[in-house]
Amino acid sequence: MNNNMIKITDLEKYYRTEEVETIALNKLSIEVKEGEFVAVMGPSGCGKSTLLNILGLLDDADGGSFVFNGIEVAGYNERKRADLRKRNIGFVFQSFNLIDELTVFENVELPLIYNNVKAADRKKRVEEVLDNLKIMHRRNHYPQQLSGGQQQRVAVARAVVNSPKLILADEPTGNLDSSNGNEVMQLLTELNEKGTTIVMVTHSEHDARYSHRIIRMLDGHSVTENILI
Amino acid sequence: MLINYFKIAFRNLWRNRQFTFINVGGLALGIAVFLFIIQYVAFEWNANRFNKNYNTLCRVNVLTKQGVAEYYLPPGFAQPVKQQIPAIENAVRLADRIGGGVLSYKGQSESENKTFREDNISYAEGNFLSVFSFPVLSGTPSLAEPKTLALSETISRKIFGTADAAGKTLMVSNQFGNTLYTVKAVYHLPETSDINPEVILSLHTLENAANRDGNDWADPNGTDAALTNIYLQLKKDANISNTGKAITNFLHSVNPASKDETIILQPFSQLHLAPSFDYPLQTYGSLLLVTLFSAVAVLILLIAWVNYINLSTAQALNRAREVGVRKVLGAARTQLVVQYLTETLLLTLSASAFAVLLVYIFQNLFNDFTGKQLSMHILNVGWFWAIGIILIAVGSFLSGSYVAFVLTAFNPISTIRGKLQTSLRGIALRKGLVVFQFTISIVFIIATVILYRQLKFMQSENLGMKLDELLVIQGPTVSSEDQAAKNVSFKNSLTQLPFVKKQAASNNVPGIGYNFSANGITKLNNPLKGDDKKSYSMFICDQNFFDTYGIQLLQGRGFTADEAERSWNNIHSVIVNEKAAKELGFNPKENIIGQKIKWGADFEIVGVVKDYHHLSLRETIQPTIYLSSVSYSFFTVQTETKDMQSKLGTIRKLYNSAFPGNPFEYFFANEKYNQQYVSEQKLGSVFIAAASVAILIACMGLFGLVAFSARQRIKEIGIRKVLGASVFSITQLLSKDFLKLVAVAFVIASPVAWYAMNKWLQDFAYRISISWWVFALAGIAALFIALLTVSFQAIKSAVANPVKSLQTE
Questions:
Q1: I need a labelling partner for B338 at 20 to 30 A (CA). Which of A87, B498, B501, B561 fits?
Q2: Which residues, in sequence order, are bridge partners of residue B174?
Q3: Contact B328 A58 (CB under 8 A)
Q4: DSSP string of B238-252, one letter each residue
Q5: What are the backbone dihedrals phi and psi of residue B541, each rounded to the nearest 5 degrees, phi first?
Q6: 10 Å Cβ neighbour count for A206?
Q7: Within an 8 Å CB–CB cutoff, is residue A58 touching chain B?
Q8: Across the interface, do B411 and A113 touch by the CB < 8 Å criterion?
Q9: Which segments within chain A are labelled E, that is strand?
Q10: CB atoms B326 and A58 under 8 Å
Q11: Given an 8 Å threshold on Cβ–Cβ distance, is A101 in contact with B328?
Q12: CA B1/CA B6 separation, integer angstroms
């Protein structure tokens, strides 16, 4: 059907300290198609977060191939990765990671600033997104003044404001109660239905059920894939 | 984008306002101190530069065979030299301050009359004002005619108010008698001028013997008495050292006795500050002091900057997550670097502005302290501002660079997670800086304590005389025919006053000086060879002096009333102190009363007094010979200090009727004596200020470092607390390392301070020995201050809820 958005082959990643070498990713191969919603699951230390960091172009692999959108990006330097990242990828974190000193509006605006969007356009797009996510009334509040669910909403807004092709979510409901968590999962589903590819790391079987496909990992490689739809 | 940077910078600084305040405040303080010292240095640097002839003027020095340079020279050579050497454009003789006395003005009415003492009166060549380019405010600059004078703006205003002084006549009463002068000019005395007479009398006045009142040594054509400084203005193309050689050759040819002496012309540019530390000629300013102060200025600025960098860096760790988030959202590294540099620039600029504000607020206080009219205007030169801008730029860059370059280089994932590895080297560097700062602080503390101990020693040491309750009245300057008789009658009238316990008259007083020094004095019988080269201080006093000043007589008697009323040529008896007796070759243990000494005529020793500290303890006690004569300049009375106002009123009445035309002036002997220690007291204040600033800044640095470390170890602290560590043990854990740094600083500082202060104490003939407890005290003080600083942060971290710190993982 669709093209591969992500194709990784034999990906390797080691963490070295003076005494031990830990293998985080062990010849992992995965594909994610455009428009897919994929959940990555596995026990702590299985390499989920490492995978997400590499997919998010935040970290470098030690071996193997990573083709993003048809381009081989393994071996890209920091600057090239940053450039690719800011145009294509949005992030949602477990701990929201909003900047405390900026208002809701300013937090959401930040990716647009780094993408050199003009001020008038920025205002329009931020308001649009805030409106869509129903947090317009909170636009001038600071993160600490919001509930956890609202903060994660802002984080999602910030992730999508730039219309990224791919959203990477790292335990997006981990710090939320179940009703707020469901709302956030609903949001991600809606975004996916509008065409955004989503890769989500989660511990929650419940959340994973929102996805199309679950990749289960153990000791740095993929063990099974469950296709849900 | 820029607005976004400023916005977040401002909010960040506001959120941590306590920290911001300490950080900006510390830097501002450092910059303010730097600015003050630089004002002083710039002032010294600018000395005499106002002079239009700055580049062609020089001062004549005579260098003796022994290498001693002398610039007080006989005035008679100036004109012949000028006529002989074509390279000289102008020669200016200046008899500095020898004209001090009383100025009196008789106006149209009684209320316009003015009489006051002015010590800063000099005699100068007719062309003085124009060659030294003092701006003339009214009148004409030439003092070529005898009995003409020029007044500084200050004096003119004091006498004439806003009226024009030119053409008015003034009576000047000084050692050359009472002479009527016509005011030729009023001049502005530039602040930065080393040569700064308030009143300039025409030197040509003294050419007439009638205007010298018998003081023929002051003849402007004389070639014996070295009473003038001689300044030469050279022609534009003249070579200064060749001109000096030409003058030397000329003098050798006219005066073969001067063959061992060389003339050295001292360029005007080297009049204030020497070009090198081993400069043989006298200067008005001190290169050493200027260098020392410049070094202190740079040092303080340096530690302030270092601190600022330290604190900013510590604070920066709180920003790690923000940096990470921004990177994830697509910020390029350069964008982040620019953002953080903008932020520090903002901070540095506000610190600079704050510093300038501090300078404006405390300028007057500082000026009172230095006794100079300093201001920021002194810095109105291009290079200062250029350096200032470069400093601010470089400083901002350095302090912002840790965040800007180090933090932004980290993997964003680890910064978001708060997992930061800082290099061990960075920590070592910061520790080194704290050691450096505390070393300087401890040196200052030790120096301050030693200085004050020496000062206290000098003020409390038994002087060998008693200065309490002694009121000293300045004798008359405006003299009359029967001055001696009037002196005696005034003295006697003082005795009559009921509140006067004792009284004495003398020609000078302890704490101010002796009368003169003389050599060629020997035992009458069998003097040793070379004894006539020994120098003695001579002091003139009456029969009551030793008793009134509580000076102990060891042998013989004091002067008699008869001896004390004789004129200068009729003295036959002297009193000596122990030192003088020894110098003369007597055994002071034996009775030497009745022994004779020879000083031109013969004198009989009638008494020996115990050595006492006539001058400050900086000086050794001089061998002193006391002479009796009726020429008195000071009258001392001993009286209880209560009701001083009414007592002064009574004495003033007696004085005015005894010495009409003279201003009544008095002082207290102990206050005058203590004024000798003004420079030590000032130095003490400088040290206290420097020590305070250094400690304050050092503590800020320490504070930052502890905050930094506590943050680094937040998880460790949390785990230890969960495992049951007490607040005390955690405080200890965090404090221990830093107190070690202070201990290291102490070990470095002690020998440095010991060496420096030992050197300083060498200037004092009588001095304290440096005791070990001073070091212990300084060490404990530094440790205590450090402990306060450290424990504040440490306790704060220790009492924090461990659940919070562990949750952040």
A1: A87
A2: B101, B177
A3: yes
A4: --HHHHHHHHHHHHH
A5: -150, 175
A6: 13
A7: yes
A8: no
A9: 4-16, 21-33, 37-41, 63-68, 71-72, 89-92, 166-170, 197-201, 213-218, 221-227
A10: no
A11: no
A12: 9
Q: Which amino acid is at B507?
A: N
User: Cβ-count burial of B3 within 10 angstroms (0-12 exposed, 13-18 middle, 19+ buried)?
Assistant: exposed
For B437-479, the pLDDT digits (tens) are 889 889 888 988 998 899 889 888 899 999 999 999 988 877 6
Location of structure tokens 């932004």: B408
Question: Rounded CA gap, B589 and B555, in Å?
Answer: 10
Amino acid at B226: A
Q: What is the pLDDT of residues B547-602, one digit of tens each?
A: 999 999 999 999 998 888 877 778 889 999 999 999 999 987 889 999 999 988 89
List the single residue in B1, B330, B413 with the smallest CB-CB distance to A85.
B330
Residues contacting B347, CB < 8 A, separation 6+: B9, B13, B20, B23, B24, B27, B312, B396, B399
Both tokens of B254, joined, read: 């006219």
B375: left (phi over 0), alpha (psi -120 to 50) or beta: beta
Q: Testing the interface with A: which of B322, B329, B333, B334 to mutate, by most A Cβ within 10 A?
A: B329
Return all residues near A64 (Cβ < 8 A) that are at least 6 apart. Answer: A8, A9, A10, A11, A12, A27, A28, A29, A74
Contact B325 A111 (CB under 8 A): no
What is the nearest CA distance from B319 to chain A, expressed in angstroms? 10
**What CA–CA distance (Å, rounded) separates A141 from A151?**
11
Length of chain B: 809
* Dihedral sign from CA coordinates of B765, B771, B777, B782: positive
The verdict on ipTM greater than 0.95 is no
pLDDT tens per residue, range B174-192: 888 889 999 999 999 998 8
- Optimal mutation site among A98, A107, A114, interface B, most CBs of chain B within 10 A: A114
